[in-house]
Amino acid sequence: MNIDFLPGNRIDLLCSGSEYFPALLAAIDAARFEVHLETYIFVDDTTGTRVAAALVRAAQRSVAVRVLVDGFGSPDFMKTIGPSLMANGVEVLIYGPDISPFTFRRHRLRRLHRKLTAIDARIAFVGGINIIDDMNMENKPKKIPPRYDYAVRIEGPLLAPIHASMRHLWKLVGWTSFRRRYRAPNFHAGKTEVCGNVTAVFLIRDNLRHRRDVEDAYLEAIASAQDDILLASAYFLPGRRFRQALIAAARRGAKVTVLLQGRVEYALLHYATQSLYGALLGAGVRIFEYHRSFLHAKVAVIDRRWATVGSSNIDPFSLLLAREANVIVRSYSFAEELRDSLQMAMDKGAQEIRREDWQEKPLLAKVTSWLAFMLVRLMIGLSGYTPKGMR
């Protein structure tokens, strides 16, 4: 896979909302020309209200502010925060605005799952964190810690492709929404000045030219791994190619570790994921389930020099259907920082699933997992896709 890494960037790792939202709010409040934000979920809670207020403040000082949210992920947005933003000068577009939760059609699964912000085409944020309070979780047990996730703050040449991708999607959704009445706004050009010493690439996943870019980047890095692979994914249901790559890495002596969701958030995916445990554990892959809070991370570190942070889970919905965005970083210091953070999360809040523990699971639990896996396959098939890797 030929991808163009760009040198000269500064990339700061942000762990969960406690680090991400202060950095995001500060950048919005310092904006002079333009704020462009994409998100899957934008909720009218404490965090959503704070972000909305910052967007309004920017618009009121004549900054061009554009917000693009997913219609399925944020079904109440235009009943809550959206109208207030528009009334105060913020431009708002909805990706897939007419998606009903009671219909099963291919376009329902084509979600805008990216979490991106570009400010003055000078600073960007990329990651997996939605505009929602870390503590905002339905049926959340009392005293559970905040949701666990990552994002990065970026300055440097990488801003150009990030900004270009956001600009393209805004124009595309705008044209689709308004047809001939839509007039594309002016955008600032992405800054390309050297701001640091980090080499990175921005990858997207769409349904046209970039259908497998994120997955192929993972597979290439896994195939070349010599020492260790540490992968964290909130929703983990890789296809055959991905599973075989992890198993091959473990069998050639690389230490392969996956950190997965331990709490049941979406039962179907949770149990379908467990159907893969036997084969992975049998090949020597170590599996940890995170129980301290809800895991929402989508990150990986390979050989302590390659790292990725983004919105792409390792499941068919992210890798085959949704619009996603990841940053891949080639930096020993960044990779080590992310690896240390993940190791701390595992030490404090995860439990290892051992091969003998899985073998002793009741037959009913194993059958339930297999049925869940088959149901996910059926859902993907009904969507009109034929994912070879799910076989």
Oligomerization state: single chain
Major sheet strand order: 4-3-2-5-6-7-1-8-14-13-12-9-10-11-15
CATH superfamily of the largest domain: Endonuclease Chain A
What is the third-level CATH name, the topology of the largest domain?
Endonuclease, Chain A
Considering DSSP H and I runs of 4 or more, what fraction of the residues is helical? 25-40%
State which percent range the strand residues make up.
Answer: 15-25%
Which radius of gyration do the C-alpha atoms yield?
20 Å
What does this structure look like?
This protein folds into 2 domains: 10-181, 2-Layer Sandwich (Endonuclease, Chain A), CATH 3.30.870.10; 201-384, Endonuclease, Chain A (2-Layer Sandwich). It is 38% helix and 23% strand. It has 391 residues and is α+β, with helices and mostly antiparallel strands. The radius of gyration is 20 Å and the shape is globular. Residues 101-105 and 386-391 have low confidence and may be disordered.
Describe this structure in a few short sentences.
By secondary structure, the chain is α+β, with helices and mostly antiparallel strands. It contains 13 helices and 15 strands. It folds into two domains: 10-181, Endonuclease Chain A (Endonuclease, Chain A); 201-384, Endonuclease, Chain A.
